[in-house]
Amino acid sequence: MPNFFDEMYADEASVRTHYRRFQDWLSTQPPEVIDRKRTEADFIFRRVGITFAVYGNDAGTERLIPFDIIPRIIPAKEWAQLEAGLVQRVKALNMFIHDIYHDQNIVKAGVVPAEQIFRNAQYRPEMQGISVVSDIYAHIAGVDIVRAGEGEFYVLEDNLRVPSGVSYMLEDRKMMMRLFPELFAHYKIAPVAHYPDMLLDNLRSVAPVGVSDPTVVVMTPGMYNSAYFEHAFLAQQMGVELVEGKDLFVDDNAVYMRTTRGPKRIDVIYRRIDDDFLDPLAFRPDSSLGVPGLLSVYRAGRVTLANAIGTGVADDKSIYPYVPNMIKFYLSEDPILNNVPTYQCRKQEDLQYTLDNLPELVVKEVHGAGGYGMLVGPASTKAEIEAFRQRLLAKPDGYIAQPTLALSACPTYVDAGIAPRHIDLRPFVLSGKTVSMVKGGLTRVALNEGSLVVNSSQGGGTKDTWVLER
């Protein structure tokens, strides 16, 4: 047996209970039918424009994210544990962000070192003392979950700035229902199609005080952004305008959208633009993507930004090791979901351990994302490891290290047929007047044999995620 948890097979001879009906169905499908369905899926995704821009890729600026037709199935009991843990974690993270921009009790208590917050590249002193509606900063959180060992779930990463991928979760489900409608008659699968309605309700619930019928927009950097499809998709699904910075302006301490009928007041901006580019008067003066004066309106409480400015300080990898302590500090609860054990290379003892064990560890930049700037020790050459050692020695506080987890695997269609491939899961948690989430998420799959890197920018694919309702 492999040394990783297999989502579908308990051992070589038996299928896990929640996969048995699917296995029975799969065993009756002729290979030519499956191939035809896979080709149809690729054709439809390309026609609809479900592509992902890959920066610096000489082969072109866009490509299709591979879609696999074998779903990842999660039993109701497992999901209940995951959901409880995710709600708990996101509540604590929102309390942490509010605290560091106000009373800073967690710093005074010595739970999180001050320098880890106030010297963090994502800390925004402009947010100090600013009140936001319902004290919510991370309105949309995409939390990356992995499964390792005997099947235990771990949180790998908290994405709180501009988490992406929910459009692929929704489109993967639509595709499976289109290709294999008979499967949905056999399983009681929790729906995910109502996510855009939940998102809109959530955004409306955090409108500025006194606004009863808020106008919501999605703000995009533009069509050349890697996640532009998602920006347009979510705006269309919510029935709101997709805008760029040039479509908005500030006047009389309010934000307006230019329309053919004249200016229209905007109350909530679901922004898919990083902090630095939001307002050239407050952050990067060379930004042509933002809205001059936006921060002053935001500070006055006359527009809501989702997610809030300064939220990124809580999803930095240097803060990640402290989240279990945050949960205990703010909620007086033990964490339901565990972190992956993490070595902070800014600490001499942790740095030495990391240097001594580079071939066995995964080392990540604390500000990194997308699978870039990292070392996967077991998959690296001696030369790559030694080169990374020099980077680590030059700037140890810029890295964390973790054991190389044997991520769980799910059967996946590859060129050679069906074979196990490693996966993770990104559920999306919405915080407003309440904390809510659909029963599902984006399952990402590392398509290369033995690879543990599931990011779309690194060649990963996606699967539909089925959460069973009973």
From TrEMBL:
Taxonomic superkingdom: Bacteria
Domain Circularly permuted ATP-grasp type, chain residue ranges per copy: 71-446
PANTHER family: BLR5612 PROTEIN (PTHR34595), SLL1039 PROTEIN (PTHR34595:SF7)
InterPro entries: ATP-dep_Glu-Cys_Ligase-2 (IPR051680), CP_ATPgrasp_2 (IPR025841), UCP005522 (IPR016450)
The protein's name: Circularly permuted type 2 ATP-grasp protein
